[in-house]
Amino acid sequence: MNEKNLLEEALLKAEELEKEGKKFYLDASEKAHVPSVKELFKQLAEAEDLHLIKIREIYQNIQQERKIPQYIPRISKKKINLIFDPKELETVASVETELTALEKALNFERKSIEYYQDLSERTKDSKVRRFFLALVQEEWEHYLTIFDIMEFLRDPSSWYTFKEHWTLEGV
User: Fold this and answer.
1) 70 burial class (0-12, 13-18, 19+ CB within 10 angstroms)?
2) Which pLDDT band, with edges at 50, 70 and 90, does 10 fall under?
3) In the predicted model, what is the mean pLDDT of the chain?
4) How far is CA 61 from CA 20, 66, 94, 110, 129, in A?
5) What pLDDT was estimated at residue 74?
6) Euclidean distance between CA atoms 139 and 145, whole angstroms
7) Contact at 8 Å (CB) between 98 and 32?
8) What is the spatial distance between Cα 119 and Cα 10, in angstroms, rounded to a whole number?
9) Which of 46, 68, 135, 152 gives 116 a disulfide partner, CB atoms 3.0 to 4.6 angstroms apart?
C-alpha cells in the first residue's frame, strides 16, 4: 500500500473515531447529573467536531492532490476550562454514574492517543506527521482534563488542596 492510500485509509478511520467520540460525549452529557461533568462532555464533543473538520480538510487535500497545510500547531483554538464547585456534589446522591462514564471517556481518549501516535510514526510526510502529533497533543489534553475531573469527583477537598497549593506554613 503506498503512502497516499495508507494516509487516506488512516484519515477515514480517524474520522470514524472522532464521530464515535462526539456521539459518546453527547450521550454522556445528556446522562450526567453533575454540571461540571455535563459541561466537560459538551466541550469534548465540540472538540471532536473541530478534529473532524481538520481531518476532512487534510483528506480532501490528499484526494485532490493539493498541498497539505504547512504547519498545524493546534486543531482546537479553545482550551477546555472547567470550574468545579464542591456544592455540585451535594446535589448528587452518587457520582458513580459520572465516574463510570468518565472512565470510558478516559479509555476512549487513550485509544485515540495510541492511534494517532501510531499514524504519526508510520507516515513519511512531515506535514502529515505534524498533523497527527497535534491530534495526539489535543487528545492528551482531553485525557488529563477527564482525569482531573475524576480526581475532583473522588475527593474535592484534596483536589482543591493540590490545585490551590495549600500548605500549612510554620507548623
Assistant:
1) exposed
2) confident
3) 79
4) 23, 5, 48, 28, 15
5) 55
6) 10
7) yes
8) 7
9) 135
Q: What is the pLDDT of residues 27-36, one digit of tens each?
A: 989 988 888 8
d(CA 129, CA 25): 27
Using the Cα atoms of residue 126, residue 18, residue 15 and residue 65 in order, give the sign of their dihedral.
negative
pLDDT of residue 95: 58
Grid cell at residue 166:
495549600
98-119 as b/e: b if 16+ CB within 10 A? bbebbeebbebbeebbebbbeb
Residue with cell 498533523: 131
d(CA 4, CA 62): 7
**What amino acid occupies position 104?**
K
Backbone φ, ψ for residue 37 (5° rounding):
-70, -45
Global pTM value? 0.76
Domains of the chain: 3-164 (1.20.1260.10)
